[in-house]
Specification:
Chain lengths: 247, 84
């Protein structure tokens, strides 16, 4: 039955062969299907992100969310781990790519995988989703309001974040971008800049900015939640994946 | 917005966590999404001791006005206090 799923914590080989924790959700339906890597936001590998991971499985996709802070804070609560990672400067881009690459391999090796894998990320994960899509062989990527894909972080910025404009020509799969028109990071001007950049490189992409919505409009447990934008956004995600992750 | 903006401060002092008092080594200060406070953004401070592990942390999430009021109070009291 659609919606039936199993979810559990697993361990896999991430960047450099490091063992990292991840949350796997699988539909009980045994038919071959596409898979999604879910990249958590800066507040970490939390309940909200695990709920999103289960949502993909309920919709019929294999879904895997790596704990990007496994190394800094193994076994810690999500908020303590996020605080530790932030204090240490955040997740290096190279490590992120290696960890997502490990997830992609894990998903493709599952018996019910159809071999097609996409990636989605929220907030800081939106930027990391774009990064992964430029560095790995994927079939779909979704960027939900990721800041600093374009645009320069302030001088003296302590976290390991840099713009990714120079990678745009390496984007290797279709990209769906979902943004809040009231957001400041990324701003509407930055979303337009990325749109133009990808068009200039002839990259397949579809962007949608929602009026009346700001950052994190998908987050149901935050005041930023905007039901109309989130509902339409999820609808666009399902349409996008049906096209790009189909067998 | 996701500001990412973060300041780190070396501190001396003690904090009380779930396992009792511990020595503080640094404070991470950032204006970003809270984990618990019912607001879109908050001024967050993590008082930590990295050598004692991730749970050696005293965390606060304050609304903008609260954070400014707290900063004023700290400046007032520390400014009036004798230097020892």
């Amino acid at each position: 039955m659609k919606g039936d799923l199993r979810a559990e914590t697993i361990w896999l080989d991430g960047h450099g062969g490091d063992r990292i924790e991840a949350y796997l959700a699988e539909p009980l339906d045994q038919r071959p299907t596409g898979a999604m890597v879910v990249i958590h936001h800066m507040p970490g590998y939390d309940e909200g992100t695990k709920e999103i991971t289960r949502k993909f499985a309920a919709e019929g996709y294999l879904a895997l969310c790596p704990n990007l802070y496994t190394r800094e804070a193994p076994g810690a609560s999500a908020d303590d781990a996020a605080a530790t990672a932030r204090a240490q400067g955040g997740v290096p881009d190279e490590r992120l790519v290696g960890d997502v690459g490990g997830c992609v391999k894990f998903l493709r090796d599952l018996p019910h995988s159809n071999g097609k894998v996409g990636v989605i990320g929220y907030c800081s994960g939106g930027r990391q989703s774009f990064l992964a899509a430029c560095k790995l062989s994927l079939q779909a990527a979704i960027d939900c309001y990721g800041a600093f894909v374009v645009g320069q972080p302030p001088e003296g910025f302590p976290l390991k974040v840099r713009p990714l404009s120079d990678l745009a020509d390496q984007l290797a799969c279709p990209l769906l971008g979902l943004f809040g028109a009231e957001d400041q990071h990324p701003s509407s001007a930055e979303v337009q800049e990325l749109d133009d950049l990808l068009s200039g490189h002839g990259k397949s992409h579809e962007f949608r900015s929602y009026q009346g919505a700001g950052h994190a409009f998908f987050a149901v447990d935050r005041p930023s939640y905007r039901p109309e934008a989130a509902k339409d956004g999820w609808s666009r995600i399902w349409q996008f994946l049906a096209v790009n992750l189909a067998a | 917005m996701c500001t990412y903006r973060t300041e780190r401060v070396i501190v001396e002092g003690s904090g009380k966590g779930p396992d009792g008092w511990f020595e503080l080594k640094s404070a991470t200060v950032y204006f970003d999404h809270p984990v618990s406070a019912p607001m879109e953004h908050s001024l967050n401070i993590d008082f930590i001791n990295p050598g004692m592990g991730p749970s050696a942390r005293v965390a606060v999430e304050l609304g903008r006005d609260s954070a400014l009021a707290l900063a004023r109070a700290i400046n007032l009291l520390v400014g009036e206090a004798p230097v020892s």
